[in-house]
Hints:
By secondary structure, the chain is an alpha+beta fold. The chain has a domain at about 1-120: Gcn5-related N-acetyltransferase (GNAT) (Aminopeptidase), CATH 3.40.630.30. Helix content is about 35%, strand content about 30%. Helix 1 (about 10-25) packs across helix 3. The longest helix is centred in the first third of the chain and has 16 residues, at about 10-25. The two termini are about 25 Å apart.
Amino acid sequence: xxxxxxxxxxxxxxxxxxxxxxxxxxxxxxxxxxxxxxxxxxxxxxxxxxxxxxxxxxxxxxxxxxxxxxxxxxxxxxxxxxxxxxxxxxxxxxxxxxxxxxxxxxxxxxxxxxxxxxxxxxxxxxxxxxxxxxxxxxxxxxxxxxxxxxxxxxxxxxxxxxxxxxxxxx
Length: 170
């Protein structure tokens, strides 16, 4: 497995995983109509623009030219973050490759890149009703940041997120 920076040519594969992972992970949490309405083509256009703007660092894990998963990270977007706080904006794995070490490989590279950029800790936002993702993050040193739950509307439903935080050890 190779982990490398994403290129514009990866936009469609990233979009495909984004849509399939959302549908697999968030079914029962996010309204079905919203999940069923996600379109790979529309998401690919957004990913192409994101990769062109490079507002975050996006990396992919691949095997034999097949994209298995991706992640994006950068400075924390939270108002209360210090200059040394990075944020894992997203990490999604092709559902056919869950629990095969893809997330581990991505996070190891992400943590190394964040440390190299001078970040000492990292935060992320995860759906409160996604215990599998929370367990993955906890296994990598993340703990719930008390009092940080926020609720937003998605597809007509109130969705709660919690923030988790980890120290980036040298």
